[in-house]
Design brief:
about 375 residues; alpha/beta; 5-stranded parallel β-sheet; disordered N terminus
């Protein structure tokens, strides 16, 4: 508990009084309270609606009715029509708001939960805020649906939640994302941790500037460019097979380059003479034709018939250059040697990132 909390004078409020307000549809607005007793929605009678999660889990085939009952998933959701705002308060006992539908906002700002918090199969129809809350024991948000939620400044030991329920609802702040990633890893939810980290890096990338001027060396840096490169090549270190797509794009681009890029010429050639004859003579000079320059690679053999370069020849040369194999049956012409070095460096870097990322996601602690 913080020093500020210790200095605060709390007034005792019984959980049954809060539950009575919720049952009557009254708003709850409390500050600096010590809530005595278990805050459990199952103890009140309110309107209910069918629980869509119950049907989904039942239809999945992995659970039957007894399993869902044992795990605390009910057929119906209790509909809560109250605005609940409890600030800077201590919850002495368990809080069980599971299997509920909150149609209005829910604020537990700077709440100190000394025991278990349960929001299993709960639907938040409005904004939910746990800013500055402290969860002393396990907190459960499994199969929970959020519209918008803020977990800024929270402190917790163990939070059971699926990332796909938070992904499009969580208000961004970097520290919370880092805590969630660490939490997922501690619970061996590695795919959830990777997904949360990936979104964290994307949102951080959006905040970075293209050019950054500094007082110390390096005086100029390009922070966003580095992030974009890591996103393209390895998905920030959690998507290894993205390197294949990036590598394929490099190989294909250089293949066209080695084959020879098309150059536009306004001179007519024999290939389009037949078309030109159909047009007035004055218009013929404006007909563009495509001339391919000489390829940038050659075979080692001196036979002129083997010097013809097809697209597949260029693709083959680009592939062995990217993979830094270099069989030696083809070589770059003088003006293309620098591009071969560039592709080789990109290939070495991309393959290295692929191996490091693959190791990162396959060998877990």
């Amino acid at each position: 508990m913080s020093t500020i909390s210790l200095a605060t004078e709390y007034r005792d409020v019984r959980a049954s009084e809060i539950l009575k307000q919720i049952e009557n549809g009254e708003d709850v607005n409390l500050t600096d309270c010590r809530i005595i007793g278990e805050l459990n929605l199952s103890e009140i009678e309110v309107e209910t609606v069918p629980n869509p999660k119950y049907s989904e889990l039942l239809e999945s085939g992995f659970f039957d009715g007894e399993d869902l009952k044992r795990y605390g998933v009910n057929k119906d959701l209790k509909v809560v029509e109250s605005n609940i705002k409890i600030r800077n308060s201590i919850f002495e006992n368990d809080l069980d708001f599971s299997n509920a539908l909150f149609n209005k906002s829910l604020f537990f700002v700077e709440g100190n939960f000394t025991s278990t918090v349960n929001f299993l199969c709960t639907t938040f129809g409005d904004f939910a805020s746990f800013i500055g809350a402290t969860f002393g024991d396990s907190s459960y948000f499994l199969n929970t649906t959020f519209k918008s939620i803020s977990l800024y400044g929270i402190d917790f030991e163990e939070m059971w939640v699926r990332w796909d329920s938070l992904e499009n609802s969580l208000v961004f702040d970097g520290l919370t994302y880092v805590k969630l990633v660490r939490n997922f890893r501690n619970l061996e939810q590695f795919e959830e941790a990777d997904a949360a980290y990936y979104q964290y890096r994307k949102l951080r990338q959006a905040e970075k500037s293209w050019i950054l001027f500094q007082k110390e060396w390096p005086w100029i840096s390009f922070p966003k460019c580095g992030d974009i490169f890591m996103w393209l090549t390895c998905g920030y270190g959690v998507k290894p097979f993205r390197a294949f797509g990036f590598g394929g794009l490099i190989v294909l681009s250089f293949s066209f380059f080695y084959r020879g890029w098309p150059a536009i010429s306004l001179r007519s050639e024999e290939k389009i003479d037949r078309i030109c004859r159909l047009l007035p003579e004055r218009l013929q000079r404006f007909i563009p034709t495509i001339d391919w320059p000489n390829p940038g690679i050659s075979r080692l053999e001196p036979n002129k018939h083997t010097q013809k370069v097809s697209f597949w020849d260029a693709f083959y040369f680009s592939m062995v250059t990217f993979a830094t194999i270099g069989y030696g049956d083809w070589y770059p012409k003088d003006k293309f040697r620098k591009w071969v070095m560039i592709e080789g460096f990109l290939g070495w870097l991309t393959l290295g990132l692929f191996l490091v990322t693959l190791t990162n996601v396959t060998i877990r602690p």
